[in-house]
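Dear colleagues,

As part of the handover before I leave the project, I'm documenting each prediction I ran so the next person doesn't have to rerun anything. This entry is a single chain, and its sequence is reproduced below.
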Amino acid sequence: MYKIKRLDFNVAYACNLACKGCISLSDFDRRGVTSLNEIKTQCDVWSKLVNPSVISIFGGEPLMHPKIVEVIGAIRKFWVDSQIRLITNGYLFGKYDPEVWFSFGRLQIQVSIHRQDHEKIITNQIKKIIQLRKQWKVFRGTISGHKQLGLIHKDLTIYKSKFKTFVMPYRLVDGVPRPFNSDPSKAHKICGNPDVPILYKNKLYKCAPIANLMDIDKQNTYHYQGLGPNDDLYSFIKNINKPESICAMCPEDLDHSVNHFDKANVIVKDKNLSSLSD
């Protein structure tokens, strides 16, 4: 059993936003989710191999999963002691009974604000959750350069995070993602998540971008293999926070950053979501 700091667990490919430079490639035609049965199988296999302090339920947009409540419950069942964190853009909170988020025990929800002009919409969705309980502690600060508001209750913590800029994990050549061929050490140095592997289709990957890119790479441009449960896990874990050759796919400077507060860079696919009532 290997103890690691954090593990992203991909449960959805589809997203209701199309963000330029998205590490999950939401600006491409990604569809579908990982079935609940597949997720349970992955939990059964990998919970015997890795013990993350934090498991981030990742997409796409996880709230587009029709069985997201059961998904969270399954992950909690297999990783009893891990902190479970749901990563969402928050637009779809209204689909769910807000009481459900208090039922998992110490759940964290990270709500990412990608459109500054839509922050009020998301804030109103969060208010419907927090009004169900009293005695919230409030935290305001900046983490890794991103503004955060933390709302902390004994059964639920909600972080509202403003991510203004993202570093493009690829360059486009005739509309097709291609690697930058950078210096791996320099690219790793400016990486937003340099120590966060992802569990994606029952394999471990260095990071979310390469897992998603491998899914759409029809020309085998990215010479990389995800790690299966019977592969050399020791070497993978040892190199989690170190630059590797695959890091060359990303840029080595911040000139390739994308401003997500520019409305042109974040498209809401479902127009009903951008006109949610207060």
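Residues 30 and 269 are 12 Å apart (CA to CA). The chain has six helices and 15 strands.

All the best with the project,
I.
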